[in-house]
Automatic annotation (TrEMBL):
<dbReference type="GO" id="GO:0006397">
    <property type="term" value="P:mRNA processing"/>
</dbReference>
<dbReference type="Pfam" id="PF01985">
    <property type="entry name" value="CRS1_YhbY"/>
</dbReference>
<keyword id="KW-0150">Chloroplast</keyword>
<keyword id="KW-0809">Transit peptide</keyword>
<feature type="coiled-coil region">
    <location>
        <begin position="32"/>
        <end position="59"/>
    </location>
</feature>
<dbReference type="GO" id="GO:0009507">
    <property type="term" value="C:chloroplast"/>
</dbReference>
<protein>
    <recommendedName>
        <fullName>CRM domain-containing protein</fullName>
    </recommendedName>
</protein>
<keyword id="KW-0694">RNA-binding</keyword>
<dbReference type="GO" id="GO:0003729">
    <property type="term" value="F:mRNA binding"/>
</dbReference>
<feature type="coiled-coil region">
    <location>
        <begin position="87"/>
        <end position="123"/>
    </location>
</feature>
<keyword id="KW-0677">Repeat</keyword>
<feature type="domain" description="CRM">
    <location>
        <begin position="155"/>
        <end position="255"/>
    </location>
</feature>
<dbReference type="GO" id="GO:1990904">
    <property type="term" value="C:ribonucleoprotein complex"/>
</dbReference>
<keyword id="KW-0508">mRNA splicing</keyword>
<keyword id="KW-0175">Coiled coil</keyword>
<keyword id="KW-0934">Plastid</keyword>
<dbReference type="InterPro" id="IPR035920">
    <property type="entry name" value="YhbY-like_sf"/>
</dbReference>
Length: 308
């Protein structure tokens, strides 16, 4: 019984909850609402100060009421004044508390939109600087590439000849495949190597847009001085059929496609073109996001002015 009374004394003195007790240990939980001595003293001092102020206000109000009764010869007033009392403060809190909460939420949302707007504008600035840098590098590579102009004095073929050459080209098993590099010096060497053994060469390109396929065919025709027979849609892609001409002479390797880019620079140009398109797309998305944020900010400011 003494030991059990000791446990109860510990629990009573500390204000905790008994968790475990045995022959050697006593475990007490301090509780979720535990406060240290310093914090508890500060809370008690604050409550005493508030009660003192409230008592002072109530005493002052009662004395004012007694003075007013003396002035009015003891006649009671229909309604006493609540100015400067705790009751008036509580009524004002009930009246304007909800409005203050709405204003705080509006200000928080406005600060969030401002932060997001600045972040999006910074990202757009970085994208524009990257676009400018990529465009400058692409312009430098394009200056090294000098495409040939199409010769007006090309060989004229009849419709029967074109149809015959088209059938021959479609039956060819060997072909030249164009990749992402486009038309460069290696492509022209491969085309002339095909023309070394046969009159018609079949060039297959994987481009999806037909206008780009036509542009590639015109470039091949201008650079090789051959004749474009037709552009055919195949399962592998688009086939460009090129005829070497009746008076074909293979150019020397030194003079062949000196005005075109090398394989390495053509790959760099392809990467830069793809990167420039992606950067412009992302910059457009950032601009749309910035416009939406500005519109939301204007609407929020309008609603805040209505609340005020």
């Amino acid at each position: 019984m003494r030991i059990f009374g000791l446990y109860q004394n510990f629990q009573h003195l500390t204000g905790g909850v008994l968790i475990l007790r045995n022959k050697y240990l006593i475990i007490l939980f301090r509780g979720k609402d535990f406060l240290s001595d310093e914090v508890a003293d500060l809370v008690d001092d604050r409550e005493r100060l508030l009660r003192r102020y409230q008592h002072f206000e109530e005493t002052k109000r009662e004395s004012d009421i007694e003075i007013s009764e003396v002035v009015t010869d003891g006649e009671e007033l229909e309604e006493t004044s609540k100015t400067g009392t705790l009751l008036e403060f509580q009524e004002l809190q009930r009246k304007f508390g909800e409005m203050e909460v709405r204003n705080l939420e509006t200000e928080a949302e406005k600060a969030k939109l401002d932060k997001e707007l600045k972040s999006q504008e910074h990202k757009l600035f970085i994208l524009k600087s990257k676009i400018e840098k990529t465009a400058t590098e692409l312009l430098r590579l394009n200056s090294l590439r000098k495409p040939s102009e199409r010769d007006d004095d090309i060989e004229i073929l009849t419709d029967e000849e074109r149809e015959c050459l088209r059938k021959i080209g479609l039956k060819l098993k060997s072909s030249l495949v164009l990749g992402r590099r486009g038309v460069f010096d290696g492509v022209m060497e491969g085309l002339h190597q095909h023309w070394k053994h046969r009159e018609v060469a079949k060039v297959i390109t994987m481009q999806k847009i037909f206008s780009r396929v036509v542009y590639t065919a015109k470039s091949l025709e201008a650079e090789s001085n051959g004749v474009l027979i037709s552009i055919e849609k195949l399962k592998e892609g688009n086939a460009i059929l090129m005829y070497r001409g009746r008076n074909y002479k293979r150019p020397s390797s030194k003079l062949m496609a000196q005005n075109l880019l090398t394989k390495r620079k053509a790959l760099q140009r392809s990467v830069l073109v793809q990167r420039l398109g992606s950067l412009k797309f992302f910059a457009y998305q950032r601009e749309r996001t910035i416009e939406d944020l500005k519109l939301s900010l204007v609407k929020l400011q309008g609603s805040a002015s209505e609340l005020c």
